[in-house]
């Protein structure tokens, strides 16, 4: 009889384990979480390329993605509102409309004598710095991309 009791205890434990795993699993009709991506842009010559990558990211995932763009260093000069080509300005505005969250490094703005109001609309300041903002985003589950 001891074997029978031990066998029943093992089966009961296995049943509880299977039940717990099923209870913790997401229901089959729950959509997967929206991916989050942080783009890092510092190189002036890559501005157009990175904006194209972001556009492709939105298109490839049917807009079901959260994208942050962190800009610092020489690349930030490309986003000055004054004297900017309408092509770049329109591309950027379209991405912001699609949900892009752009951040400008406060340290770079200070060294370039710029203010947030000098940049295209949509930018927020990364007050603690661009690289710090990137680390914060990564700690919040954002994948890091530096094209």
Shape: elongated
Q: With helices defined by DSSP (H or I, 4 residues minimum), what is the helix count?
A: 5
Give the helices and strands as they follow along the chain: HEHEHEHEHE
Distance between the termini: 68 Å
Low-confidence stretches: none
Briefly, what CATH class? Alpha Beta
Number of domains: 1
The overall strand count is 5
> What portion of residues belong to β-strands?
15-25%
What is the mean pLDDT?
Answer: 87
Helix content: 40-55%
Polypeptide structure, described:
By secondary structure, the chain is an alpha/beta fold. It has a single domain (36-145), classed as DsrEFH-like (Hypothetical Protein Ychn, Chain: A). The chain has helices at 2-24, 47-60, 86-98, 106-111, 130-139, and strands at 36-41, 66-71, 101-105, 124-126, 143-145. The chain has a five-stranded parallel sheet with strand order 4-3-2-1-5, with helices on both faces. Helix 4 links the parallel strand 3 and strand 4 (124-126). Helix 2 packs parallel to helix 3. The termini are far apart.
Secondary structure elements and pairings:
Blueprint: H1 2-24, E1 36-41, H2 47-60, E2 66-71, H3 86-98, E3 101-105, H4 106-111, E4 124-126, H5 130-139, E5 143-145
Parallel strand pairs: 1-2, 1-5, 2-3, 3-4
Helix pairs in contact: 2-3
Signal peptide: 1-25
Pfam families: DsrE
InterPro entries: DsrEFH-like (IPR027396), Sulphur_relay_DsrE/F-like (IPR003787)
What's a concise summary of this model?
It is built from five helices and five strands; from the N terminus they run H-E-H-E-H-E-H-E-H-E.
